[in-house]
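Intended use. Records like the one below are meant for learning the mapping from a protein sequence to its folded structure. Do not use them to infer anything beyond what is encoded.
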Amino acid sequence: MVKQLLLTLMFSLFLISALNAQEIEYKNNVYEVKGSSILLHGYDVTESITLDDQRAIFEAYAIRAEEYRKEKRNKRIQNKAIAKAYRKELRAQEKAERMSNNEKRFVIF
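Structure written out for the chain above:
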């Protein structure tokens, strides 16, 4: 149950961060990059802005995408560490239960 809750929480954080990964703020406007096109308020403005502005927006997008990939990788590593610690804790509990059951079995009254 705890594992499912943890996975649900991490997945929802992943989706929230993925939605903001494509938005780039440049010259007081928020552009959205989709593939090779630049959108402003849902309209394609790739051809109407200058090449320097396009280049700057795509560079900012590349930087943000790289940061996003690093953040995603770090979260995946953290999730693996959490899952490993959880499995280790469960194994320790199971071992303790087995040991207590073994001790009860050999007790002579």
